[in-house]
Amino acid sequence: MEHSISKDLLLMLTDADDHNVIIQVGENQNTRDFRAHSNILRARSHYFQIALSKKWVTKRNNEDVVKYKKPNIDPGVFEIILRYIYTDEADLSEKSGTDIFKLLIASDELLLEKLFKYIQDYLIENRVTWIKQNFDFVFNIVFKYVSCKKLQEHCLASICEDPHQFFSSKNFPSLDKNIFYSLLKRADLHIDEVIAWNHLIKWGINQIPLLKSDIDEWNETDYEDLKKAISQFIPLIRFSEISRADFYDNVRPYKAVIPHNVYEEMMKFYMKDIPPISIISTPRVRRPLKKLIKAQKPFLMKTVKGSVRWNPY
């Protein structure tokens, strides 16, 4: 009869009585004690190498068993993790998106890199619908973890495909500046440049406490504060992709927050068709292809120093 090491270790986890670690997981009414073996925990997780050191654990009743608490992990999630530690297996097919996401965060905390990578890939490949339905929750969490690079990229790509709902959400004005910078920097952000500019102004205003909503009531200090808030984003705006009319209506009122040389280059561009030097002029796909082609039909295409821009005039 064939026996696998994983089955033997699972039997050791579930049936053996020689455990020397008790891990109390959960809090309040949702707690559970898990029995395990310190040697296996240390061998499989660098986290437990540290956590089960003498500095962090306490003996129970002067016995050889040590007790350790993990109140921030759900018992159901930890059960999957402990099984994985012993068997190197994790079956996620019957788990909800919420539980899988909790498992992702827990595996990152416990430094289970192989499991973390597997769960991240599994979410992207098999729980796309759940991610869309819980996008705000997922988005706000994954950007707190450096290790969630794939999920971060997945979220950014999803926004780029259809950014209007995201930018119009109530949470957008408080978006972390590094995330917003990453979005504006992308070439596949499907949004008109003037709309990107308007969202930048909206975001910038929200960063300044007590700033009045009516621009007519602003003073020099207000403009200076907004300029500081959005200065690092200015190079990301393709001003040459904004029409004359939109520039006049949406950009000109905020002339004071734009560096003088940038504004002057735009004036030369509009008035004398002189290509800007310090302004990004290479267009990016700001709208889905079908809409972009439809919108470009009445336009003329010009080449400026190897780049292509669409000019409605």
UniProtKB/TrEMBL annotation:
CDD domains: BTB_POZ_ZBTB_KLHL-like. SMART domains: BTB (SM00225). Residues 19-94 form the BTB domain. It comes from the Eukaryota. InterPro entries: BTB/POZ_dom, SKP1/BTB/POZ_sf. SUPFAM superfamilies: POZ domain. Pfam families: BTB. PANTHER family: BTB (POZ) DOMAIN-CONTAINING 2B-RELATED, BTB/POZ DOMAIN-CONTAINING. This is BTB domain-containing protein.
